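FAQ: What does the model actually see?

It sees only this:
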Amino acid sequence: MTPARPTILVVDDEPDLLEILEFNLEAAGYEVRTARSAAEALEQDPASADLLLLDVMMPGMDDFALARRLRAEPSTAALPIVFLTARDSEADVVAGLELGGDDYISKPFSIKEVLARVAAVLRRAQRGAPAPAAPAQPSTGLALDLETKTVTIDGAPVPFTRTEFDLLRLLLEQPGRVFSRADLLARAWPEDVIVTERTVDVNITRIRKKLGPYAAQLRTRSGFGYYFAEE
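And it is asked to produce this:
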């Protein structure tokens, strides 16, 4: 049986660019669906896509708002998102990452760059991290299920992106060990994805916000890095 092609949902209000992206992604072997607004994208059942390629600057609900909504839904909380934008300031990049974006491509871009980044994000999503023999669970109220790739806090499921899950798993597997930003970059991100140490800080901040009463256990050792305290 021929394996299903990965499905990419492309959201952009520029018809010409939308057509170019659709043509090239299909030529690269992807199943492509398109939408010209965030509202139209929601009608396309984003949960059934393997990756969203989203333009940030659109009328109405922009893609930052769309990403925020998708991250809040359990069915799309871990869906890979790649932002396309003409805004390339550090503040905009950080804003995209804080919303759970997996990559951020500034316009103008080459189609080769888009294809390479989409492929890298999909490889990362499909590859996952090798699981230890037993679930990492240093705190009874905070648990990771390595089979379903889910996090529960005091019995309630909390949506985590793949990057957030991999970082938390790594810290929980070795409580008390201080990981430098470089360590976390090397272990939680693939070699073909270019990110900075600031990306680690953004993801750690997002994880802390989701940990609720256990946020204080994810600690910073000034000048060295991050660790998870057992108590």
